[in-house]
Amino acid sequence: MKHKSQIFVALDFPDAASAWPLVRRLNPDMCGLKVGKELFTSAGPEFVKRLVDEGFRVFLDLKFHDIPNTVAKAVRAAAELGVWMVNVHASGGRRMMEAARTALADFPEPPLLIGVTVLTSMTADDLAETGIAVEPADQVQRLARLAAVSGLDGVVCSAWEAEQLQAEFGRDFVLVTPGIRPLGSEQGDQRRIMTPEQAQALGIQVLVIGRPITQANDPMAALQAINHSLTL
Ligand SMILES: O=c1ccn([C@@H]2O[C@H](COP(=O)(O)O)[C@@H](O)[C@H]2O)c(=O)[nH]1
Q1: Domains of the chain, CATH where assigned
Q2: Cα dist. 224→9, 30, 114, 229 in Å?
């Protein structure tokens, strides 16, 4: 990918007014921006459009998971906002993902369509409680296969699964990895984590980082330090 930073800052803020002070200090070369459920629910599509208009690559992280018709229409609505990437839960199944793919067919520059595999907050025990008694890596692989045959551009996974996915799907299959934690930052609710430098060394295309930047005493300095560490 030709963009300057692989970092996508997760704008997990309660509303637009809380997010803007940081956004105003950023520029599109420093990072992409991820809008998730909290901010989208309060700030809505207008906020997303504003970020797009300011030239940011926007990852709309709403993890759609519904019947095929509903997901297809939601994905189209996301594409109409001009976002760079949108995602659906791969566990929604092949017909759901194919419907999402088809829904983007007539966009000249569709957003990347990405399937969420196993959330980076989950362990084998968490999976087992949902009735899936396998290691996260195995479930990630299974869902990534389904995403690939459904025509998706890549998956959300943890950096720990990157090597096995690259070996099977090649480097054009986009890997998006949250659970990125610079050394010394708090793990919080994340479980399958890796540092930005280790993730970059694996050739992962998109590194999603939220709290280690947004909750830092100086978010700009935190982002700059990570970007700098990735250019060394
Ligand atoms: O498996 C997943 C999928 C999405 N996320 C999202 O990424 C960010 C991570 O934020 P941090 O503060 O760096 O933990 C957050 O918006 C999640 O909703 C994820 O963490 N894991």
Answers
A1: 6-231 (3.20.20.70)
A2: 12, 8, 27, 8
